[in-house]
């Protein structure tokens, strides 16, 4: 009989992070819900950027509690850049620095039945209907699902798949998908196109875990379209938050690791990352997750990044500053909320000679180049709609020139998300 001491287990939930403090609080509610499911196992959480605790701090807490085996779960709906590259990079670096520590990285939440049921429940609730006793159909209503929108085609496709599944389950008269991120169609222009179908009631349902600037931006777009179309009833569903079924979904991902279901030969998020790392397709790089100062409540760059950025700008002559500031700002905006409060000079002209190599220095994430950045229904439609004119560094000079009127009129406005 073996007398080998069993390694102490711990659970780590890895989130994205937000400048919105309400989003931090709500993420903590998920961790609290999971702790109730595992009262005998330490459960911690942390964020990639903007928020405290960061992932590094959460891992430190587990190690300080004597944990030797960590089950890490990405708090992400779909597997895009953050779940595929950024979180694995942080976990790999941390594990290498702590001999004897074993970290197993699980799967994104994905389209589990529990996630779909939670989403449908939020939609029924918005219509004042009982999710346990739903109507046979909702043929008189159109559903518009708002996905995150990334440069990852597969993640965008999962949002569209979700829309179809929910539509089949709930029986809407029509359903379609719009996106708040770098893909198309964007929320505002997407809604305007869908109005032509003639539905008098439209449910807009954001498939997001928590609140944040993106949610508030989406609400701003919907309100704007609703005000211009008073004859149509717009219903805004609540985001997922800590719905019981969401906690169930997180628990299932933990159980997959505990029961060894990830070791079936199928490539996991971590094994995929390590394969691509060995092939030189991705890099291990420093992260906000490792450098954010928890005492810094400016909700902007970390102290490390601010110093790095300041030194970089000071080394440039005046003619280079405007271009560098734009690139540096965009390098920290990635595939998430781009409606930052800006700590840079907004008096830039619009002769940006943007480079499209998207080098992120030593500590940025890589968001990937999106080939449809110039799509007429994509991110360019957000210029002039409450979003800063320097939305993304991927905009070409041609696009900036075509949208010049919107850009000139938008730089001094306050984004919906900041109101």
From TrEMBL:
KW Amino-acid biosynthesis (keyword) present: no
Domain of life, per lineage: Bacteria
Biased composition (Basic and acidic residues): 332-365
Region described as Disordered: 329-377
Keyword terms: Lyase, Metal-binding
Keyword DNA repair: no
One Pfam family here: CbiX
Molecular-function annotations in GO: metal ion binding; sirohydrochlorin cobaltochelatase activity
Enzyme Commission no: 4.99.1.3
Gene3D superfamilies registered for this protein in UniProt: 3.40.50.1400
InterPro entries for the chain: CbiX-like, Sirohydro_Cobaltochel/CbiX
Name of this chain's protein: Sirohydrochlorin cobaltochelatase
Organism: Marinomonas spartinae
Gene: cbiX
